[in-house]
Specification:
This protein is of the alpha/beta class and about 240 residues long. It is about 45% helix and about 15% strand. The protein contains eight helices and six strands. The chain has a six-stranded parallel β-sheet, with helices on both faces. The chain is globular, with a radius of gyration of 18 Å. It binds 3-methylbut-3-enyl trihydrogen diphosphate (2 copies) and magnesium ion. The site of one 3-methylbut-3-enyl trihydrogen diphosphate (IPE) has 11 residues, from strand 2.
Length: about 240
């Protein structure tokens, strides 16, 4: 099909602001996370038609373990429910789901649910949804270095290959962070080298298809130069 040849973009989202969304409503923070899962559903649904072929979302960072146990437990329960409930819908919609980050510290039932969802959706080509769980970009870089060392090729090329060819790596085109903060919080540091950054005050549970469309429209309006001169300078010369 003609459409499948169009180059898709990799959008990554730091889904931030759930806690504040709930607190403002006098609700427990967990209620904000539950509303955040709804927002994720809207965004996953809207992404392919906006030209997004890969969508990486930050669900839980290595540093989020520091939060109160009740919140961590609620987040893990939501993650499990999302994976179990959405796998079939993702597969039917032609989406593939994979999880990046550490797995060894996740509750066993979640690790099993993840592996099963990855298997069940492996054939999806319309959208690759990557969920970052117990994730740290710095850890991912260190892991790649260790893999290069283990493979016996700890050269510059060997490391570079681990970083760029590992299944967890794909350059980000558009990085979105909701919730008003303007920082990366250890998300996709390597892959965002030339990402366009888009920050919005909108809290994640309020984020929807129109917001995603606005971010993608701004992305297309920007001129990416990758250190070169870019089309506008070239055409002016
Ligand atoms: C993002 O929302 C979700 C996770 C980090 C798991 P927060 O929980 O960080 O919400 P705020 O930033 O406290 O509002
Ligand atoms: C980043 O948000 C992690 C996720 C969205 C999962 P945080 O709320 O944890 O980041 P900081 O603490 O504001 O940097
Ligand atoms: Mg936050």
């Amino acid at each position: 099909m003609e459409g499948s040849r169009v180059k898709t973009i990799h959008a990554a989202i730091i889904m931030d602001g759930n806690g504040r969304w709930a607190t403002r409503r006098g609700m427990p923070r967990q209620a904000g996370h539950a509303a955040g899962v709804e927002a994720l559903g809207r965004v996953v649904e809207a992404a392919p038609d906006l030209g997004i072929g890969t969508l990486t979302v930050y669900a839980f960072s290595v540093d989020n373990w520091q939060r109160p146990k009740v919140e961590v437990t609620a987040l893990m329960a939501l993650l499990r429910r999302y994976i179990e409930n959405e796998t079939r819908r993702l597969a039917e919609g032609g989406a593939r789901i994979t999880v990046i980050g550490r797995r060894d510290r996740l509750p066993g039932d979640i690790a099993i649910a993840i592996a099963s969802a990855e298997r069940a959706t492996a054939g999806g080509t319309r959208l690759h949804l990557r969920v970052a769980v117990d994730y740290s970009a710095r850890d991912a870089i260190v892991e790649a270095a260790m893999a290069a060392a283990r493979s016996g090729d700890a050269t510059r090329e060997g490391l570079s290959q681990q970083l760029t060819e590992g299944s967890a790596h794909r350059d980000v085109d558009l990085l979105i962070r909701t919730g008003g903060e303007k920082r990366l919080s250890d998300f996709l540091l390597w892959e965002c080298a030339y990402a366009e950054l888009y920050f919005t005050d909108r809290l994640w549970p309020d984020f929807g298809a129109e917001d995603l469309a606005a971010a993608v429209a701004e992305f297309h309006a920007r001129e990416r130069r990758f250190g070169g001169l870019g089309p506008s300078a070239v055409s002016a010369a």
